[in-house]
Design brief:
By secondary structure, this protein is of the alpha/beta class. It has 4 helices and 7 strands. The chain folds into 2 domains: 32 residues; 85 residues, 2-Layer Sandwich (Nucleotidyltransferase, domain 5). One of its GO terms (cellular component) is plasma membrane.
């Protein structure tokens, strides 16, 4: 009788290995398919705009401070190196749009140079970030 009870207890155990395998595979799938956004790395005071549209597919952000500093991928970049850095980011993750977050007191000439560098890197769609006004 004792042997029969032990066998019943052994047969009642549920093997969790297949379920853990499926959960692990799903976790890997979600990590691989997640898009990672390359942010500029600083906060700027954006100008106000009455009419604006949302960009949903942007992965690259460039911030321009009022002092003329340019930030890309959480590090400071010279104007001459913007195109090369964008090309590197595009090789990692293709994007159609680059968003420029220029401070409201940033010099117009610096913003135009950055936009030229973005065009030089092969991006035709450039959006300027603004806050709701």
């Amino acid at each position: 009788m004792a042997r029969k009870r032990i066998r019943e207890e052994e047969e009642a155990a549920v093997d969790m290995t297949p379920m853990l395998d499926i959960v692990f595979i799903m976790l890997i799938f979600f990590i691989v398919t997640t898009s990672f956004i390359k942010e500029a790395g600083i906060e700027v005071t954006k100008p106000k705009a009455a009419n604006q549209t949302r960009q949903k597919s942007a992965n690259i952000f460039i911030a321009i401070r009022d002092t003329g500093e340019i930030w890309l991928d959480k590090r400071r970049v010279d104007v001459e190196r913007v195109a090369a850095n964008i090309e590197k980011l595009l090789a990692e993750q293709p994007s159609e749009v680059v968003i420029v977050q220029a401070d409201k007191d940033a010099k117009h000439g610096v913003v135009v140079k950055v936009m030229d560098a973005i065009k030089e890197a092969g991006i035709d769609k450039i959006s300027i970030a603004a806050s709701r006004g």
